[in-house]
């Protein structure tokens, strides 16, 4: 009996905590040009704009609190007698502040800075600026530790291993628009996992799921966890 549960979360799980999603009616990509603030080219062209974008989201995140969906997943990790692996596309720390551990941030973290010169990572200050020097090598080549479009997501080997051994795969609060995350359900299903989508509305990959539960994450996730 495969008792590993792999959970993929997206911006929808943090929506009720007040953090914006990307592709909903008032989503972030309706206010910002993705190519200008979430690509390496955008950062090279205008690092100040990109830092402003992430400085604003870091401030938002500090003012937000985990919601019952985050708490329910932490409860599942505590009580389930197998592994519960949370893979998140989110760059906020609400899973951790909601009590979860071993969260895999495949798109990076708002709370970390990265030096493009020496690869050093450190806890990001509240605000980062283009000429910040790296705390280790001193070169002003610092950036948010975020995986932008066209960059390779983090921990892919580990994630693929988890998907291959999952008994259950659940996707929560994600539109299924961004790859490779949107393809995880197919990989899990092919490996024999039971798949469930918990989302406000059908995602772009809803047909790949064996089970769907629609509604707000703060209601559907605690009900699913029990
Ligand atoms: C990669 C930065 C290769 C962090 C993000 C051309 C050139 C290069 C690449 C590509 C290309 N064409 C396609 C690609 C691949 C590309 C891609 O998928 N593009 C899409 C747009 C077509 N992907 C990449 O570039 C990735 N890298 O492919 O590298 C590779 C891959 C594998 C192995 C080797 C090499 C990199 C992708 C990461 C990009 N970074 N953001 C940040 O700023 O936050 S992506 C961005 O979208 C966020 O990270 C976000 O997490 C992610 C997914 O969005 P969602 O989380 O799903 O949010 P969304 O708003 O879309 O949906 C919210 C959902 O919640 C909705 O369904 C809504 O109904 C629901 N909801 C709302 N409220 C609630 C709710 N549900 C429940 N309760 C509620 N209350």
UniProtKB/TrEMBL annotation:
Entry's free-text remark on domains: 2 residues (Tyr-54 and Arg-57) present in a large hydrophobic pocket are probably involved in substrate specificity. They are important for desuccinylation activity, but dispensable for deacetylation activity.
Annotated family: Belongs to the sirtuin family. Class III subfamily.
Entry EC no(s): 2.3.1.286
Catalytic activity: N(6)-acetyl-L-lysyl-[protein] + NAD(+) + H2O = 2''-O-acetyl-ADP-D-ribose + nicotinamide + L-lysyl-[protein]; N(6)-succinyl-L-lysyl-[protein] + NAD(+) + H2O = 2''-O-succinyl-ADP-D-ribose + nicotinamide + L-lysyl-[protein]
One GO cellular component, as annotated: cytoplasm
Purpose of the protein: NAD-dependent lysine deacetylase and desuccinylase that specifically removes acetyl and succinyl groups on target proteins. Modulates the activities of several proteins which are inactive in their acylated form.
Active site: 107 (proton acceptor)
Protein name, per record: NAD-dependent protein deacylase
Binding site for substrate: 54, 57
Cofactor comment: Binds 1 zinc ion per subunit.
Protein's cellular compartments: Cytoplasm
Gene3D superfamilies: SIR2/SIRT2 'Small Domain, TPP-binding domain
Location of the Deacetylase sirtuin-type domain: 1-226
Keywords, in A-Z order: Cytoplasm, Metal-binding, NAD, Transferase, Zinc
List of residues binding NAD(+): 10-29, 89-92, 173-175, 199-201, 217
GO terms assigned for molecular function: histone deacetylase activity, NAD-dependent; NAD+ binding; protein-malonyllysine demalonylase activity; protein-succinyllysine desuccinylase activity; zinc ion binding
Domain of life: Bacteria
Gene: cobB
Source species: Marimonas arenosa
Chain positions recorded as Zn(2+) binding sites: 115, 118, 134, 137
A matching Pfam family: SIR2
Chief localisation class: cytoplasm
Needed co-factor(s): Zn(2+)
């Amino acid at each position: 009996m495969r008792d590993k549960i792999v959970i993929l979360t997206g911006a929808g799980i943090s929506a009720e905590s007040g953090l914006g999603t990307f592709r909903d009616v008032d989503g972030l990509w309706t206010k910002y040009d993705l190519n200008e603030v979430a690509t390496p080219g955008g950062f090279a062209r205008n690092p100040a704009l990109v830092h402003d974008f992430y400085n604003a989201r870091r401030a938002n995140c500090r003012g937000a609190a985990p919601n019952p969906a985050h708490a329910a997943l932490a409860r599942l990790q505590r009580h389930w007698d197998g592994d519960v692996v949370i893979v998140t596309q989110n760059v906020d720390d609400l899973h951790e502040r909601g009590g979860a551990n071993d969260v895999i941030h495949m798109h990076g973290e708002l709370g970390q800075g990265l030096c493009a010169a020496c690869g050093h990572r450190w806890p990001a200050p509240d605000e980062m600026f283009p000429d910040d020097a790296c705390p280790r090598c001193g070169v002003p080549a610092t950036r948010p530790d975020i995986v932008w479009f066209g960059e390779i997501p983090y921990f892919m080997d580990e994630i693929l291993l988890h998907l291959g051994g999952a008994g259950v795969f659940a996707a929560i609060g994600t539109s299924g628009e961004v790859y490779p995350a949107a393809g995880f359900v197919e990989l899990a299903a092919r490996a024999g996992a039971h798949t469930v989508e918990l989302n406000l509305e059908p995602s772009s990959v809803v047909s790949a799921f064996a089970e769907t539960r629609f509604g707000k994450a703060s209601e559907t996730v605690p009900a699913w966890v029990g």
